[in-house]
Write a structure and sequence with these properties.
Ald_DH_C; 6-stranded mixed sheet; Aldehyde Dehydrogenase, Chain A, domain 2; 15 helices; binds nicotinamide-adenine-dinucleotide; binds N,N,N-trimethyl-4-oxobutan-1-aminium; oxidoreductase; Aldehyde Dehydrogenase, Chain A, domain 1; alpha/beta; 7-stranded mixed sheet; globular; 24 strands
């Protein structure tokens, strides 16, 4: 397929015997892969400066209409979009599996999270309001919460549909428009979201998609009509985004990487701690920003913990991600799989997994599968403990005291998430108070209800997604002074 026609075009892409998809693209994909079977889905080229300019101009026009609508009117369209997502849940989830390689069970939950996020911000859209302040002599001031304009969204490949929704929902609720660039590894489902907003009655190009990699992303960041950049991805790219945005003094939201700790104390409910550790490491083939990959276990319960965690890791069903009983699908690409595997043999003891996996089904043979891995006898200075692996590799470390484990848990430049398992309520709150991380879990891990803010400390990011506070990251406050008397001039 080639599309140098620039304007959105509709293609029918035959994915396999059972599945076909209509894709609307602005510009073209670049060797888009069908990850879990390792086949190329289609060849497309990235959007260039002309395409990006066209998309931003169209979004600016849409902003003109959308920002003048009342919160109630915007909410109505967003709620309709949420209903459409609900009715197309299975189709979107299947496409996410094909695009990303994760299991259908997880993809359905991602679609639900996207829908809930749009519903949640629709609920907030009609409550956005300013403040009235009485001043001397009958004069007064009031504040207006105003949108920023055209926002750019740039997404990572691990939660393609969810990321597009987590960014667009608060942006649109506040009255902005958005041009979104998905990762070139997972370009499809953001386009489905654009279709859905349009079908729900949003003004044309209110949410549109440009395809491409870093050049397209950089064109968006530098575009003079882009008012804000919201980015999800790695720390090195986040740094570049901030640099580019700084040229135009544009605000940024940065949702970046992590190397999060999970602390399991001696008094934990061991069954729940093991479940928590698995949830903290193996969702989405371990390709999760908030994963608690440094699992610190009290030395007195380490043997029981390891026995149980290894047993359950070995039981994880790997294979065709479109099947309901599969719990682990394929990683996103061959280079990424190679990188993840390279972290396995670096000094720690491999307790299970960490090898390429070849499914028995011949149609899956070209996919990028590996067995989930637990590393024991890990030391703080090991590469597997220090660097974000972004794959199904859990590093287990032993500790003796609370003070010691807190110091070791915080000894990282990242601070996205952290978790603690204990039955002692005082210890739980004392520990989270001292953990330097933006999203902390007590006796659970990796749940992200859309009503609560999510984001990182330190190099894991700036700003928050979800929750009420995110309104502040997609709007600006205007103060209006109103004089009811004469001007008291000094001149
Ligand atoms: N904190 C969070 O909420 C969160 C969520 C998901 C993923 N992540 C992080 O994302 C990373 C994995 O995702 P990835 O490999 O797609 O990240 P990445 O940084 O390589 O790419 C992310 C996006 O940025 C674009 N991009 C790359 N270089 C660019 C440039 N110079 N200018 C503009 N855009 C550019 C990419 O095309 C892609 O769309 C991990 O580090 C993970 O922890 C964070
Ligand atoms: C929904 N999860 C699993 C917490 C993922 C949040 C987004 C991070 O990659």
């Amino acid at each position: 397929l080639t599309n140098k026609g620039r304007l959105p075009c509709k293609y029918k892409v035959n994915l396999c015997d059972q599945l076909a998809l209509y894709v609307i693209v602005l510009g073209c994909y670049h060797h888009h892969m069908f990850h879990f079977v390792g086949k190329i889905l289609c060849h497309l080229e990235p959007c260039d400066a002309v395409d990006v300019d066209q998309a931003v101009k169209a979004a600016k026009l849409a902003f003109g209409h959308w920002s003048k609508m009342s919160g109630m009117e915007r909410a109505r369209i967003m709620i309709k979009a949420a209903h459409i997502i609900e009715s197309r849940r299975e189709e979107i989830a299947q496409m996410e599996v094909i695009d990303n390689g994760k299991s259908i069970t997880e993809a359905r939950l991602d679609v639900d999270s996207a829908r809930l996020c749009i519903e949640y911000y629709a609920g907030l859209a009609n409550t956005l309001a300013g403040q009235h302040v009485q001043l001397p002599g009958g004069s007064f001031a009031y504040t207006r919460r105003e949108p920023l304009g055209v926002c750019a969204g740039i997404g990572a490949w691990n939660y393609p549909f969810q990321i597009a929704a987590w960014k667009s929902a608060p942006a649109l609720a506040c009255g902005n428009s958005m041009v979104f660039k998905p990762s070139p590894l997972t370009p499809v489902t953001a386009v489905m979201l654009a279709e859905i907003y349009a079908e729900a009655g949003a003004p044309e190009s209110l949410f549109s998609v440009v395809q491409g990699g870093q050049e397209t992303g950089s064109l968006l960041c530098h575009h003079p009509d882009v008012a804000k950049v919201s980015f999800t991805g790695s720390v090195p790219t986040g740094r570049k985004i901030m640099e580019m945005a700084s040229k135009g003094v544009k605000p940024v939201t940065l949702e970046l990487g992590g190397k999060s700790p999970l602390l399991i104390f001696q008094d934990s409910d061991l069954e729940n701690a093991v479940r928590g550790a698995l949830m903290a490491n193996f969702l989405s083939q371990g390709q999760v920003c908030s994963n608690g990959t440094r699992v610190f276990v009290h030395e007195n319960i380490l043997p029981q913990f390891l026995e149980e965690v290894v047993k359950r890791t070995q039981r994880i069903e790997i294979g065709d991600p479109l099947l309901d009983n599969t719990r682990m699908g394929a990683l996103v690409s061959q280079p990424h799989l190679d990188k993840v595997l390279s972290f396995v043999d670096q000094g720690a003891t491999v307790l299970c997994g960490g090898e390429p996996f070849v499914p028995t089904d011949p149609k899956l043979r070209g996919g990028y599968y590996m067995t989930p891995c637990v590393l024991g006898e890990c030391k703080d200075e090991m590469t597997c403990v220090r660097e974000e692996i972004f794959g199904p590799v859990m590093s287990v470390l032993s500790f003796e005291t609370e003070e010691e484990v807190l110091q070791r848990a915080n000894d990282t430049t990242m601070g996205l998430a952290a978790g603690v398992f204990t039955r002692d309520v005082k210890r739980a709150h004392r520990v989270v108070e001292n953990l330097k991380a933006g999203s902390c879990f007590i006796n659970n891990y990796n749940i992200t209800p859309v009503e609560v803010p999510f984001g990182g400390f330190k190099m894991s990011g700036i700003g928050r997604e979800n929750g009420q506070v995110t309104i502040e990251y997609y709007s600006q406050l205007k103060t209006v002074f109103v004089e009811m008397g004469d001007v008291d001039s000094l001149f």
